[in-house]
Amino acid sequence: MMRHCWGRRIQGHLHKTFILAIVLIALTVPCGSATDDLANLKAGAAALEAKKYAAAVAALEPLVKRLPKIADYPAFFLASAKVESGDYAAVPNALDPVFKMTPVSPLLPRAVLLIARAYGESGDTKAALDTLRKNYSTLPQPAGDLAMATAFAADGDAISAVVYRQRVYYGYPMSPESAQADAELAKLRVELGEKYPPAMPNAMLGRAVKLMEAKQYAKARAELESLVPQLGGAEKDLARVRIAVADYNAKETARAHSALASLEVATPEADAERLHYLLLCAQRLKNQDEVNSALERLGRLYPNSKWRLESLIASASHFLVENQILVYEPIYRACYESFPKDPQAAGCHWKVTWGHYIRRLPDAADLLRAHLRMFPGAENSAGALYFLGRLAEDAHDPSHDITAARAYYEEILREYPNYYYNVVARERMKEIGTGPASAKVNEFLRGIDFPQRSRALNFEPNATARVRIERARLLASAGLDDWAVGELRYAAQNEDQPHVLAVELATMTTKTAGPDQAMRYIKRYAGNYLYLPIESAPAEFWKLAFPLPYRAELERFAKQNGLDPFLVAALIRQESEFNPKAVSRMNARGLTQILPGTGRELSRRLKVKAYATASLFVPAVNLQLGTFYLKTIVDSLGGRWEAALAAYNAGPSRARAWSSWGEFREPAEFIETVPFSETRNYIQTVLRNADTYRRIYSGEIRAGLKK
C-alpha cells in the first residue's frame, strides 16, 4: 500500500521558551513529591516542544499514574512524543486516560486526531477512519475534515477524499488548512479526470462570501469571476451580482454602479440583491433620484425580500444622520410594518417612536407603550419605560400621574440594574420621592412578555466546577498556563457554571495577560452580568468586570483636571479595557486612546519632557494627556458630559451639530437623539460604567457586597 503523509495535525500550545539545559536539569529531579511531578510535567512538555522525544517519554511516562487528577495531560503529551518518534503502536494505550477522564477532557478532540494519525502512519487506515467517524462531532474544524480526507485517501477512496477537502477549501478559506486542501485538490483533479466530483454551487459561492466577510475583496472578486463559467441559473446570477458587490466593498463605487446598472439577471433573489447594492452605490454617488427608484422597484417587485428591508434601513439611516425626520419616519415605519418579525424591526419602530417623543407629539405615550408590547426584549425597552415615566411626571401631559412614574421607574430599577436608564431612573426616584405606584401601570407591565433573566447566580462552584478549577490550578502550578486557560475555557463553554469559571479565568489571567483579558472572560462567559444586582454577586466578580488598575495615577490626574475619577475609569474601560498597549483601527493609542497627532499637541501644551509617540503606551503619560484632553472637551461644551462623550467618540463638530437638533430637557434626550448607534451606546455605557465604578469602589454599598 502506498504510504500517505499524515503530517502534524496537532497544534499544541506548548511553551517555546524552555532551553534544553533547563529541560535536562529538570528531568534529573527525583519524583518524590507532587511538586516534583509537576516540575517533571513541565519539563516533559518542554522536551516534547524541543523535539527531544526520548527525554519527553522518560519524563512523562511515570506521571500518568502519579498525577491522576490531570492524567490526561501527561498521557496526551506522551502519546504525542510517541507519534513523533514513530512508536505508533503505543499511541492508543497511551491515550487511554484521555478517553476515560471524568469530567470530559478538553484534549479529547485532539486525542482523536492523534490516534487517527498513528493508525494512518502505521497503515491501519480502517482503524483511522473508524476512529474519525465515531468521534466526528467532536473534531475541531477544519483539522477534522482534513484528517478525514487524509484517511479516505490512504484507504483508496479518492472521491470521498475530494469531498472532505472541498469542505475545507470552500468552508474555511482563511485557514492554513485551506491552502493544503487546495494543493491536494489540484492533484486529485488531474488524477480523477472526469470522475472528479464538482463542488456544490452554494459551497463555491459561500467561499467568496467568506472572503468578502474577511475583507479580502480582490480575492473574492477573482473567485467569483472564475466561478461564473462553472455555474448556471440562480447561482450564476448571484455570482455576477456579487462581483459588483466586491467592487462596492472595495470602494470601487463607479465600477460597481456601472456593472449593476447594466446587469440583467433572471432570478428574483439575485435581482433584489442587485437593486439593493445599486441603491447603496447611488447613495455614495449622491444620486437621490436613483435611490428612490431602486427603493420603489424593490417594494413593487420584491416586497418581502430581505434586500428590501436592508435598503429601507440604509435609506432611512441616510436621512436620520441628516436629521430629516419627516423623510425618514415613513421609511422606518415601512420597515417594521413590512417586516414585523425581523430583529431589526424593533430599532425601526423606536426611531419612529423617538421622533414623536422628541417633538412632543400627543401620541408619544401610545407609541412607547406599543414598543413595549411589540418588542419587550429589545434594547430600547428600558428607554421606553423611562420616557413613559417622564411623561407621567409632566404636569402638562394628559398622562400626568406621579404614581405611574414610580411604577415605570421601579420596573427599570428591578429589571435593568446596571444599565444607563437605571442610573437616571434612580435620580428621578430621588426627585419625586417614595410613595405608592400606580396599580394600573403595574397591571399593564404584568401583561408585557419581558424576557426572563437571572437576577442571582450561585457563585459557589459545584462538584464539576471544583474539579475543573483544581485541574487548572495544577496545570498552572506546572507552568502550563495556556493549558490551564484551555481547561477553564472548555468548561465555561460546555458546562453549567460558566460564570464561576469566568471568575477563575479572569483571576488567573489578570497578572499574566492583564485586566483587559480578564474583563473579556467575564463578558464572554458571564454574558448577562449587567442584569445582576450589585449585591447579588461577590465583590471579586465586580472588580474583575470593572477593574481599576493604575488607580493612584488615574486619581491624581483626574483631580488635577477637576474630573470624576470614576468617570475617567469608565471611559478607559470602554476605550481600551485598561490595555496600555491598545491600538485602535484609527491608530488611537493607549489607555485613553489618543491619536499620535493629538498626543504631540497635548504634550507641547503640557510641556511633557522627552515626549515621543511611544509615550502614549506609558500609562502615566497617557493618563496625563487623556484627562487634560477630556477636560478641554468638557469645558468647550459648557460642562455637558453627554455632549463631551459624544465628542470624544465621534468628534466635537458632530457633537455640536447634534446639540442643535432640539431643545433637550435633559441629557437622556440628547443621547437618544444621537444618530450614530455606536456613539449613542458609547455615551450610555460610559455613564453607566461610571455609576457602577462608583458603587463598587466608593464604599457606598461595599458593605452590602457578597464576600
Task: Give a verbal description of the structure.
This protein has helices spanning 20-27, 34-49, 53-60, 63-66, 72-84, 91-94, 96-100, 108-121, 125-134, 143-154, 158-171, 176-192, 201-213, 217-227, 233-249, 253-262, 268-284, 288-301, 306-321, 325-338, 345-358, 364-374, 381-393, 402-415, 420-432, 439-446, 463-477, 481-494, 498-513, 515-525, 539-545, 551-560, 565-575, 596-606, 619-636, 641-650, 652-659, 667-673, 677-697. It contains 39 helices and no strands. With 707 residues, it is mainly alpha-helical. It is globular and about 85 Å long.
Give short descriptive properties of this protein.
mainly alpha; single chain; 707 residues; disordered N terminus
Query: Per DSSP, what share of the residues sits in E-state strands of 2 or more residues?
Result: under 5%
**How many separate helices?**
39
Count the E strands.
Answer: 0
Roughly what percent helix? 55-70%
Q: Write down the overall mean pLDDT.
A: 93
Tell me about the largest β-sheet. Answer: none
N-end to C-end Cα span: 66 Å
The best one-word shape is globular
Backbone structural class? mainly alpha
Alpha-carbon Rg, integer: 30 Å
pLDDT under 50 segments (min length 5)? 1-5, 7-31, 700-704
Quickly describe the structure:
The protein has 707 residues and is an all-alpha fold. It has helices spanning 20-27, 34-49, 53-60, 63-66, 72-84, 91-94, 96-100, 108-121, 125-134, 143-154, 158-171, 176-192, 201-213, 217-227, 233-249, 253-262, 268-284, 288-301, 306-321, 325-338, 345-358, 364-374, 381-393, 402-415, 420-432, 439-446, 463-477, 481-494, 498-513, 515-525, 539-545, 551-560, 565-575, 596-606, 619-636, 641-650, 652-659, 667-673, 677-697.
